[in-house]
Amino acid sequence: MTKDRDRTSMPMPMPMPMTWPAPAELPENVPWYTHRGSKILRSGDVGAIVRYYREFHRLTQTQLSEKICVDRTYVSHWETRSRRLDSIANRIALADKLGIPYASLGIADAGQQDHAEMLASGDSVVRLSRTAREGGRAADALRELDQLLRALERRACNGKAIRADMVLLAAARAEIGVALGDLLPEAHLKTAAQWTGSGVNVLASLEGEPNLSAHSLRMHGNELRKAGDLHCAVRELRRAVEISPDLGGRATASLLLARAASEQGNTVMFDQCIKQCRQAIEQDPSIFNFFINPFSLREVELRGFLLTDRIKGAERVASRVVVAGEASPTWRVIERVTMTQFYLAVGEMKAAESELRAAIFGAQELGLPHQVERAVRLAENAHLDDLVRMGKAAIEEMSDPL
Questions:
Q1: Closest alpha carbon to 162 in 109, 221, 102
Q2: DSSP per position, 70-117
Q3: Beta-carbon-side half-sphere exposure of residue 28 (alpha carbons within 13 Å)
Q4: What is the pTM of this model?
Q5: What are the structural domains, with CATH classification, of the chain?
Q6: Which of 57, 91, 198, 335 could covalently link to 23 via disulfide, CB atoms 3.0 to 4.6 Å apart?
Q7: What does the alpha-carbon distance between residue 8 and residue 19 come to, in Å, rounded to a whole number?
């Protein structure tokens, strides 16, 4: 049978990047990203803008005048508003030297309308990408974000970004990291954590974005765990529990922390986190989301009991009936691999083979190499050679763009 015919009998894999570039370096210590700087920039007051820039960087009027190549008296006159900056050429020059958009100094900018439209639609783009990823279409999520990310990074690197750009850029970077965490093989999962981490770092420099900061930190902690950095993952997820401003966010962070704790073999922390999740759900069932729902909670509990060598607890959890209909395709694949792990632990080989075959098939269909690699390890340990070959072939298919 030819290779092309083989492909007709298996699901066509999602396009899977074997590698992905690291996030671009961004300018640091930018005054216009703070709340105060953003407000002053919107005012268009040249004197206030110049004074804030100077105070932010702790420059004297003389030092600033030398930096922007004007006489010191100009700086003094601008700040006291005793001299206007009427020339368009001079306004453009000052905007370039202070790293601010031309529109902030009242200069018509050909790209101003495009920028306004990008900001207006940017949140929707991020939400759509998240919906695509949670629906098992991580590659589509990356495509949704690509153009937005490039435009935002270009503005930031050109010194023309405003606070709203950076908030949107942080959200986009975090979402790209999570999507990469689905699409990249294990050897490259550190790249996913680099992207989520870059989103966290941008937000740390902004301050005053509690919901997005907590969400990004939760996602970063989870990607660190997947990349094998359990110590840092636990640290970040504990912090995420602390700073999440709402019950659903804290429950989500607790669930992800439970996962990391179980991989560390920390039974006490795992049990505490699961208890916190259950209490949160009992307190407010409306907090259900991609991570917090009966299906995902059972999967995290089951894997946690297996990793902490408590088979009786795993049997109790495995017997708990939950409706899979509301679970995302990604969670169903994850759960199948975990159920395989459970069946192997209790010696039910036929059930394990059935689940493992379905898991490999589903993971290939969604383009989830990390889950195929989990499945292959289980198959190797159980000496299920046919499934080992099937899994390795699936990984090869996913890495083949043709």
A1: 102
A2: S-HHHHHHHHHTSS----HHHHHHHHHHHT--GGGGT---TTHHHHHH
A3: 5
A4: 0.87
A5: 31-109 (1.10.260.40)
A6: 198
A7: 26
